[in-house]
Amino acid sequence: MTKTEFICAVGKELNIINTGDWKMYPVVIDQEKCVKCSMCFQYCPTKSVKYVDGTYFINPDFCKGCGVCIEECRSNAIDFVKGE
Amino acid sequence: MKLAERMSSYEDMVGPGITACSGCNVELSMRTALQILGPNTIVAVPPGCMGGVQSVGWADKTGMKIPVFFPLLDNTASMLSGIKKYYERIGRDVNVVAFAGDGASVDAGFQALSGAAERGDNIIYICYDNEGYMNTGFQRSSSTSLGSWTSTTPVGDASHGKSSHKKDMPMIMAMHDIAYMATASPAYMPDLIRKIEKAKTIKDGLVYIHIYNSCTTGWGYPSEKSIDIVRKGVKSRFMPIYEVDHGKFKLNVDIKDPIPLMDYLSSMKKYKHLSEQQIEELQKYVDDKWKNLKTLCEVMG
User: Quick one: which of B199, B171, B188 has its CA closest to B295?
Assistant: First the structure.
């Protein structure tokens, strides 16, 4: 490793693990049932729940499928998509 | 502004994919804390769960978008004091933050942390307390609560889990007369966010934030119950949420009508062997601590 001029090392690139592969089933929000309480947004450990223009949706790229959002949802609008 | 709008406006400082267990609420705490602290931050993550999940990276790659350190288990606070002093000397205002586990704060790193608190170094020290050395397979730490099963305090004929109570670390740090001390829980997210925002504004001493977390694999509960467990912990008065701002005590989440402690204890595997006597001892510990805290809040509020 070469000596850097900085007091703290900044990585040359991000070390990213594909955690999206971990989940058994994809998770989706039923927009009709959603009451916009923001519980899923607050509690998602991987910050996979995004808030854009007043709507919450789940970005599946790095979602580990832990089910915290399903458990915490106040209107039971979130669930695994099983089948096929 | 709504919480969701405010949080969406901050960038996530941690890389998108880190190998924390599915449903880990320590990952949630770390992401939220660093999101608020922002890009003008240097973070140190000592060995522990969050060091082990590749947030500190591998070779020339790091798991964060900000400078991140991997100090030793026992020198985190002193190392950060040095970094802060350097930046004070060159006249640059940087948030110098530690995100350490309970092993690195309550056990091994305590001496360095106590020293930094006594010197009044302006660092933000966040301790995520999941009650044990989870990264290496749940060995007992001094933050493990009474009766808890761990791999070094097994359950059998001769041993019935840990035989001593948990070290009351938040109160120990409060008694160092530091600038700001707070406890938080990921189940009370607006409260946690407010405390990190407050920590960012304090420039006259050490800030210590103690986050009561849990561990799905070590404690033994399904991953989706991750938030529910810590909420039960707070509601049963086991994890009191309060803050000490320059010597002023304030109870942030006043539990007037606590749920039975058994609701919390029975929801995970690590307490499933508890005897009547151990439950009584735990209940007495919780009641005494709550009474002390209430008195302090009244007298020093």
Answer: B171
In which domain, by residue range, is B250 found? 3-299
Tokens of B73: 């288990």
Q: How many A-B residue pairs are in contact by the CB < 8 A criterion?
A: 118
Q: Is the pTM of this model over 0.95?
A: no
Alpha-carbon Rg for chain A, nearest whole angstrom, is 17
**How many angstroms separate the most distant Cα atoms in chain B?**
61
Instruction: Answer whether A7 sits within 8 Å of B2, measured CB to CB.
Output: no
User: What are A26-60's pLDDT values in tens digits?
Assistant: 999 999 999 999 999 999 999 999 999 989 999 99
Interface of B with A in 138-157 (CB under 8 A): none
Element (H, E) at A56: strand A55-58
Give residue-wise pLDDT tens across range B33-56. 999 999 999 999 999 999 888 888
Number of domains in chain B: 1
Structure tokens that stand for B265 in this block: 């204890």
Taking the domains of chain A in order of start, what are their residue ranges? Answer: 19-80
CATH number of residue B66's parent domain: 3.40.50.970
Which of A11, A38, A68 has its CB closest to that of B62? Answer: A11
**What percentage of chain B reaches a pLDDT higher than 90?**
84
B46 touches A at CB < 8 Å: no
Q: What is the CATH number of domain A19-80?
A: 3.30.70.20
Buried b / exposed e along B24-48 (16+ C-beta atoms within 10 A): bbbbbbbbbbbbbbeeebbbbbbbb
Residues B2 and A41 sit within 8 Å (Cβ to Cβ): no
